Structure formats: structure tokens, C-alpha cells
């Protein structure tokens, strides 16, 4: 079973994403901000990270820059999942090392598409 | 919503006659689900009232009912695999076969709001270096004027551009205009849209090398499906290929098409295509 870390400061979003991703057979862990997510990654690097952009303490982009700067054995797939829905944000995220980008609101079909695009399902 | 058996039969007959759609009794709930907005626009309170109005012979109302009942579900790179196969197998094979003419014609039949032909156009844009000097025509047709109008505009919602489309292609081919995502002129120019009804004779004078007719024949009655497959066969070159939807087969029509051994979901014209069937299809195509 592949592992997924959902990083979002909204409990509701984490719950909705968890339900969908569990259906795709991922084991789920959660973090409420980028700092917590970095700590989780330090303990056990997930296969895929669902990442919000705007969060307290440490935002998604800052988290991604730290993550990609680390020397790690495993390179996790990062899928941004955010309300930022303009091309500039998308380009910045992809340039920083995101593998895919979801504009909220999302549904099962969109998540399936993105997981397929990155070869996880 | 009130629906007598007579009314149901009137709707079912209309849909079969105008768009080849079979409406089974257990699917009668679709009438209520899809015709609600039309009832509201017409100031009517029930499907029986609409059926009665149809009985007076209004062609405008018939067209509006048929249009409202069509399923326009589609998305970019739907099912993905057929598009991978198009790039990896079909396109190289057809290019080898047409090396002398350097010309390919592709038809996206029942293209709905355009995501399928535009997906093909994106692949062809990405293969441009191999296709230098080639003339490639993508003709996309649908029965729905509303869907065609949306397809020609090439502007999609945030939801639509996330279904099937990967982010690198979104960034490469789209710009954002307000809350819509607009496809680049380069991709839009590669597709020509026309209205066509697969249950009627087609107007094409030249055959195609590749036809995509996905998720449309499944709505037809068996005899309508055979008629449509004959038209598709007559519109396809002998060494061309036909792609059907993932849930569709050529069951009952093996004299027309056979599975393509090198590409799952694709069909090639059957080796034995009776001259009677060929003539029938050709007449239908050219009349």
C-alpha cells in the first residue's frame, strides 16, 4: 500500500481528501502546516504529498523548497491542492518541484486524473 | 413527474428518430432529470404537457427536446490509453502508410464540447518535428449545436481543464480569461467543427484515415448502430482505424470491423466487406 501525507490547515479538506485517497488504496497521514509536514517526512517519507499553499507557520511552497533541498533516498511525488488558481501560481509550484497541481474545489475524478498523470494509479 | 405510457412512447420515438438514441422504460427518469430546464423555459408543469405539445408537431420543440436529452459528457484525454496508443502505434503506422501523400485526415465523431479533438491536436502539436511538411486535418462533428458552439469557443471551466488534462499541458496550451481557461489559437486552429448526425447520411466526400467514435453508438438501437457503423466504414480508408468507447464493441457487426491486433480498443475495416454493404455505405456517405 502506498502512503500519502495530506498537508492542509483545514480539517474538513483533510477529511474529504482522506476519504477519496483511501478509496484509491493509500494509507493516510495528516499534517496541519508545512512545519509539521517536514517533521513527518523526517520520520517516514511518504510516497505522495497532497499540499495546500496557504497555511500558518509554514506554507506549502516553503515546505516544498525545503523538501526538495533535502538529500533523501526517496523522492516523494508532490501534488499541490490549493485555491490559488492562476497560471503564475501553477508555474511557480511546478518550477519549485511539484509534480502536479489541483485547483480546489476538487472531486474524485480530478484526484484520479492527477494520480494517473504521476503514475501512482 | 407525471409521465403516461403514451407520453413516454412519444419521447422514445422522437429520440430514436432524431438522434438514434434508445430510451428504455427503466431510464424514463432521465426525461425528468434532463428536460426540467426546458419545461421551465416553456412554462409547462409536466412531461405529459410537453409530450402533448410535441404531438402538435412543433419541430422547434422536437429539436430542443433532442438537444436536452443528449449526453455531452467528455473530458480531455479520456481513458488516456487510446491517446497513448494513437501517439505510439496508430500515428507512426498511418504516417508510414501515407509517406507518399504526406496527408492524414482524422475524424472525431460525436466530439461533444471538443475535448477529444483538442486532445488529438495537442498530441499532433507535440509531434510537430516528425510531421513537418505534412497536412493533417482534424474534423470534429457533433449533433448538438450547443456543444459545437462551446467546442469552437475553446474555453473551459476550471473543473473541465482538470479532468484528464495534466498540469504541464494546462500551462502550455491554456491562458486564463476571467474564470474560464482558453485554449491557444494554435491548438484551436488545428480542428474544424461541423454539425453531423450519425443516424443520417453524411456529407463527407473524402475518406478518413482515423475515426474516433466513442461513447455514442452505445446509445443506439442495434439496427441504428449497424447503420452508423456502415457509414463510418464507408468513411474510413481500407487501412484506417476506428476507435470506439471503452464499453463499446462491434458485437453483431463483424462483417464491418475487426479488432486491431496492435491497439486495444481500435478496430480495422473487416477484410471481407461485402460489395453490397460498401455500396450502401458509400451512397449514404455521398447523398
Automatic annotation (TrEMBL), chain A:
<dbReference type="GO" id="GO:0000160">
    <property type="term" value="P:phosphorelay signal transduction system"/>
</dbReference>
<keyword id="KW-0597">Phosphoprotein</keyword>
<dbReference type="InterPro" id="IPR052048">
    <property type="entry name" value="ST_Response_Regulator"/>
</dbReference>
<dbReference type="InterPro" id="IPR001789">
    <property type="entry name" value="Sig_transdc_resp-reg_receiver"/>
</dbReference>
<feature type="modified residue" description="4-aspartylphosphate">
    <location>
        <position position="52"/>
    </location>
</feature>
<feature type="domain" description="Response regulatory">
    <location>
        <begin position="3"/>
        <end position="119"/>
    </location>
</feature>
<protein>
    <submittedName>
        <fullName>Two-component system response regulator</fullName>
    </submittedName>
</protein>
<dbReference type="InterPro" id="IPR011006">
    <property type="entry name" value="CheY-like_superfamily"/>
</dbReference>
<dbReference type="Pfam" id="PF00072">
    <property type="entry name" value="Response_reg"/>
</dbReference>
TrEMBL record, chain B:
<dbReference type="InterPro" id="IPR022642">
    <property type="entry name" value="CheR_C"/>
</dbReference>
<feature type="domain" description="CheR-type methyltransferase">
    <location>
        <begin position="1"/>
        <end position="257"/>
    </location>
</feature>
<dbReference type="InterPro" id="IPR036804">
    <property type="entry name" value="CheR_N_sf"/>
</dbReference>
<dbReference type="InterPro" id="IPR022641">
    <property type="entry name" value="CheR_N"/>
</dbReference>
<keyword id="KW-0489">Methyltransferase</keyword>
<protein>
    <recommendedName>
        <fullName>protein-glutamate O-methyltransferase</fullName>
        <ecNumber>2.1.1.80</ecNumber>
    </recommendedName>
</protein>
<keyword id="KW-0949">S-adenosyl-L-methionine</keyword>
<dbReference type="InterPro" id="IPR050903">
    <property type="entry name" value="Bact_Chemotaxis_MeTrfase"/>
</dbReference>
<dbReference type="Pfam" id="PF01739">
    <property type="entry name" value="CheR"/>
</dbReference>
<dbReference type="Pfam" id="PF03705">
    <property type="entry name" value="CheR_N"/>
</dbReference>
<dbReference type="InterPro" id="IPR000780">
    <property type="entry name" value="CheR_MeTrfase"/>
</dbReference>
<keyword id="KW-0808">Transferase</keyword>
<dbReference type="InterPro" id="IPR029063">
    <property type="entry name" value="SAM-dependent_MTases_sf"/>
</dbReference>
Amino acid at each position: 500500500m502506498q502512503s500519502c501525507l495530506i498537508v492542509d490547515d483545514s480539517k474538513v479538506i483533510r477529511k474529504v481528501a482522506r476519504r477519496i485517497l483511501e478509496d484509491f488504496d493509500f494509507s493516510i497521514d495528516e499534517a496541519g502546516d508545512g512545519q509539521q509536514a517536514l517533521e513527518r517526512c523526517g520520520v517516514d517519507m511518504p510516497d505522495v504529498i497532497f499540499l495546500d499553499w496557504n497555511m500558518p507557520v509554514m506554507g506549502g511552497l516553503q515546505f516544498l523548497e525545503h523538501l526538495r533541498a533535502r538529500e533523501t533516498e526517496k523522492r516523494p511525488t508532490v501534488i499541490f491542492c490549493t485555491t490559488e488558481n492562476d497560471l503564475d501560481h501553477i508555474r511557480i509550484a511546478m518550477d519549485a518541484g511539484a509534480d502536479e497541481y489541483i485547483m480546489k474545489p476538487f472531486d474524485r475524478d480530478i484526484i484520479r486524473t492527477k494520480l494517473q498523470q504521476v503514475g501512482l494509479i | 413527474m407525471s409521465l403516461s405510457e403514451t407520453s413516454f412512447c412519444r419521447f422514445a420515438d422522437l429520440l430514436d428518430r432524431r438522434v438514434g438514441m434508445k430510451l428504455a422504460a427503466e431510464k424514463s427518469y432521465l426525461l425528468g432529470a434532463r428536460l426540467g430546464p426546458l419545461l421551465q423555459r416553456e412554462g409547462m408543469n409536466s412531461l405529459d404537457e410537453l409530450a402533448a405539445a410535441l404531438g402538435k408537431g412543433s419541430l422547434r420543440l422536437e429539436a430542443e427536446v433532442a438537444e436536452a436529452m443528449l449526453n455531452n459528457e467528455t473530458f480531455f484525454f479520456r481513458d488516456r490509453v487510446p491517446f497513448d496508443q494513437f501517439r505510439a502505434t496508430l500515428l507512426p503506422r498511418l504516417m508510414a502508410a501515407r509517406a507518399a501523400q504526406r496527408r492524414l485526415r482524422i475524424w472525431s465523431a460525436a466530439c461533444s464540447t471538443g475535448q477529444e479533438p483538442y486532445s488529438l491536436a495537442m498530441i499532433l502539436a507535440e509531434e510537430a518535428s516528425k510531421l513537418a511538411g505534412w497536412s493533417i486535418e482534424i474534423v470534429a462533428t457533433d449533433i448538438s449545436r450547443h456543444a459545437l458552439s462551446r467546442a469552437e469557443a475553446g474555453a473551459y471551466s476550471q473543473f473541465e481543464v482538470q479532468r484528464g488534462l495534466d498540469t504541464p499541458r494546462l500551462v502550455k496550451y491554456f491562458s486564463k480569461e476571467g474564470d474560464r481557461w482558453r485554449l491557444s489559437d494554435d491548438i484551436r486552429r488545428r480542428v474544424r467543427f461541423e454539425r453531423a448526425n450519425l443516424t443520417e447520411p453524411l456529407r463527407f466526400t473524402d475518406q478518413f484515415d482515423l475515426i474516433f467514435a466513442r461513447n455514442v453508438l452505445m446509445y443506439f438501437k442495434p439496427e441504428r448502430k449497424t447503420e452508423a457503423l456502415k457509414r463510418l466504414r464507408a468513411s474510413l480508408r481500407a487501412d484506417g482505424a476506428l476507435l470506439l468507447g471503452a464499453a463499446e464493441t462491434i458485437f453483431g457487426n463483424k462483417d464491418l470491423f475487426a479488432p486491431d491486433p496492435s491497439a486495444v480498443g481500435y478496430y480495422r475495416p473487416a477484410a471481407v466487406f461485402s460489395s453490397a454493404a460498401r455500396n450502401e455505405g458509400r451512397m449514404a456517405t455521398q447523398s
